[in-house]
Write a structure and sequence with these properties.
Strand content: over 45%
CATH class of the largest domain: Mainly Beta
Structural class: mainly beta
Number of strands: 16
Largest sheet: 7 strands, antiparallel
CATH superfamily of the largest domain: Galactose-binding domain-like
Radius of gyration: 24 Å
Number of domains: 2
Shape: globular
Bound molecules: calcium ion
CATH architecture of the largest domain: Sandwich
Length: 275
């Protein structure tokens, strides 16, 4: 019985010399990254494996980063067909540097068997924010829920291109037809603020009047209490600006009661300003 469990030797060992097991090459694109040390900013690269040989293979690439840099994945496994021309297989990798990461160059390493590929990540501190600057940019966003195809950071990432509405440029909640939803941003220390701009999805294909936010309250967190400072009702525009008496806030959120399609809440970007 035990003998039946012995694996047969690989077929190629019984039929003469095998074809050479071709080299698998690794690549990163771009080959190096610049990154700003804020919780909702990230950089990304495509990690690629290519089978240049004549036998299909499974391959595992391991990914690691020098502390305190973090990566969205630590392994990339794939079947690599042997075809002509060679067929690269890629995956996106997100890279983040927490606030207060000392400026400098950090190593991200891609490794496979005896090969190692180094991706240098140059980390910079964010520029100081002055009067009128967007205080939400790159800061820690939060939400009642986030759809699996989106990122909670998408609404504070600085990307306001509605034509790029997809997995990484906006925030979309995960509770279809259920309201309210909320979306907000927390500051590292209290900020004096008097204006919140909400950009909701508004592209030629998906206009705000059909897919954007309709009704919401703007709230600020002051002394640990949420306070409503402005309301928007019946919105059909891609940009809604709420102004209110200057207040010192630890965080800002919008509480969304309705969207124009009655299904999802969609925020392209939320900007917060003050003196
Ligand atoms: Ca965005």
């Amino acid at each position: 019985m035990v003998a039946a469990l012995v694996m047969a030797p690989p077929a190629n060992s019984a039929s003469g010399p095998s074809k050479p097991k071709g080299q698998i090459t690794m690549a990163a694109n771009p080959a190096e990254l610049d990154l700003i040390a804020l919780p909702c900013f990230s950089g990304s690269f495509q990690a690629t494996m290519t089978n240049t040989g004549q036998q299909a293979q499974f391959a595992d690439m391991t990914l690691s980063a020098q502390e305190p840099i973090t990566l969205s994945r630590d392994i990339f496994s794939s079947y690599l067909p042997a075809v002509d021309p060679d067929q690269p297989v890629s995956t996106p990798v997100e890279v983040r540097a927490p606030r207060d990461t000392p400026p400098g160059t950090y190593d991200v390493l891609l490794a496979m068997e005896k090969q190692t590929l180094r991706v240098p990540v140059r980390v910079q501190q964010p520029p100081a924010k002055g009067p009128g600057d967007n205080l939400a940019l790159g800061e820690q966003a939060f939400a009642s829920s986030t759809h699996g195809n989106f990122s909670v950071c998408g609404g504070v990432d600085g990307n306001k291109n509605h034509d790029q509405w997809d997995t990484h440029t906006g925030w979309n909640d995960a509770t279809a037809t259920v309201f309210p939803d909320n979306y907000g941003v927390r500051f590292p220390e209290p900020k004096r603020i008097d204006q919140v701009e909400v950009l909701t999805l508004d592209s030629a294909k998906s206009p705000a009047a059909r897919f954007g936010l309709k009704d919401w309250d703007v709230q600020v967190l002051a002394d640990g209490q949420w306070q409503t400072v402005a309301q928007v009702r019946g919105n059909t525009s891609g940009l809604a600006t709420s102004r209110f008496a200057a207040t010192t806030a630890e965080a800002v959120q919008i509480v969304i009661y309705a969207s124009n399609d009655a299904r999802y809440s969609r925020v392209m970007e939320m900007e917060v300003r003050g003196g």
